[in-house]
Specification:
Helices cover about 75% and strands about 5% of the residues. The protein contains 14 helices and two strands. It starts with a helix and ends with a helix. About 25% of the residues are buried.
Length: about 300
Amino acid sequence: MSNTATAATAASASRKSRRTGPSHANSGYLFVLPFLLVFLAMLVLPLVYAAYLSLFREQLIGGTVFAGLENYTRALSDDRLIEGVLRVARFFLIQVPIMLLLSLAAALAIDSGLLRFAKTFRLGIFVPYAVPAVVATLMWGYLYGPDFGLFAQIADKLGLGAPQFLSEGHALASIANIVTWEFVGYNMIILYAALRAVPHDLYEAAAVDGAGAWRTAWSIKLPALRPALLLCLIFSVIGSFQLFSEPKLLQPLAPNVIDSSYTPNLYAYSLAFTGQEVNYAAAVSFLLGLVIVVASYTVLLVSNRRSRA
């Protein structure tokens, strides 16, 4: 009898503690709270403040005054900004397909099991991504140098003229080469991880049907990689339109080619920290963000339509 009473008392106490104690949902919010605080402090609040700044302008007489959408209207007719956006769009259309094809080829080669020293090969491709963009750009800037660079020294030994990698016709391709060198390994890891998630039953069924390595790659591996390729493509859209570090660091080597408006991000930086046009720079940054959203949505929409087709 006493055992029954004790059990009933314990059950009652447990129900009471569940009613009065924190719920699982509240506990979850407590775990997420640190991230939310950092997210608000480092992303949301700066965006709100930048949006606020973009609605004002500085003038000699009167100081800071409300300008409404005047900064945005000015940006939409700014030839330097439009030229920079078109330049990074061209950069995206040329550089990203090459980078993704190289990443795809590397991932398929590693996953095939036919590659000798596959782990060393995978590490060698991924190592450039571990190198900071600043260091990578400085390294390639030395190689590109027309007076002291490695390629210039080799050309001089051969009695040839120094290659002009940072001339007006080659600067964008030279920057694309740096970005490709940096991010082929990053995209390769994403694609390779997606390949490792493909069920082996599909490969076994393909082998039973007599499919070779090329047929298996075309009919099984590539369709399985579509979501991963789309993810890499979206990341590439964002990265291309935010291009900044490489042209900024190469600018001293080619000041007549890479100017302060070579890319939209570099233009916004120059406006804010060189020209002291903080309000206009905020408007330029918001318009650049809008361009990235539209471009990403367009890529996503086209990919979804092709998948349905």
